[in-house]
User: Fold NAD(P) transhydrogenase subunit alpha part 1 from Pseudonocardia hydrocarbonoxydans.
Amino acid sequence: MPRESGAGERRVALVPKVVEKLVGKGVRVVVESGAGLGALIPDDVYVAAGATIGDPWTADVVAKVAPPTTEEIGRLRRGATLIGFLAPRTAPESLAALKEAGVVAYAMEAIPRISRAQSMDALSSQGNVAGYKAVLLAAERSTRFFPMLTTAAGTVKPAQALVLGVGVAGLQALATAKRLGARTTGYDVRPEVADQVRSLGAQWLDLGIEAVGEGGYARELTEEERAEQQTRLEEAITGFDIVITTANVPGRTAPTLVTAKAVEGMRPGSVVVDMAGESGGNCELTEPGEVVVKHDVTIAAPLNLPATMPEHASELYARNVSSLLELMLDDEGRLAPDYDDEVLAKSCVTREETS
Assistant:
């Protein structure tokens, strides 16, 4: 496990508990000095778990969080295996470089969303972290209470919170906002998630538009559907104090769900937290990575939310990596991936050519 080089990336690919587990299976684990400091894990804790502090780039398998830089790809040995978030849909040049370097690469975001791969589903594990933190950011920026408060000075009504896009991150956002006392509502173009929304004690916003896609994702809307969705959302959004958006279409620019007109219609002091900033944002007034105030509404578009909670985000991600790695190992702890396995076949984005 090397040290992450990306700005603000505090997560790690392996935590001490996972190191212990791998060492117990006969795997030698090498950790770069200082690799765990962002997640508050010093070298001596890794050593106590059975790891060796040294150069990780010559290993058979290198586990990362963020995609490797060009320089890092150059440090991988030919025939090595790389595991991490590799952005296969949006960074084809990196995949080409990995293939040219003779590296076998597994993208954590390409793991199929099937039942037996749930323990490896890093998108879901990190989505949970992001959804939770987004609500805390909304509460911090809000000028109003989340819960109903009854005091000697009178009763304060609870905040109205709307979550747009109720995948894993959205469901966690709904659950967290509910715990904080807000009245919650969820919306998605996939009608099958309505029951999940209601199971969390939230209301379902039905706009009459459905877009069921493959692999648990929503398909891209047609131009007519998008226009109708925006018109209906503009009317609905004005009634909410908090709007959290999570909608992403893999490999594409994030759809616009909150228009400038909708923001203008919101009450002063309201908050929009746009979790799709990395792919352009769901709010028309979003400035990715920034917090801005438009029409007296605060619009926050944080990037890489899971990295702001590195301890638990790393624990979850390391379990995902470990589960995937175990699928590649034989009973002797040697690397022996079986590409007839659906999980390995679909998550492997570069592979050595076989004759």
The chain has a mean pLDDT of 93. The CA atoms of residues 62 and 82 lie 5 Å apart. The longest helix spans residues 122-141.
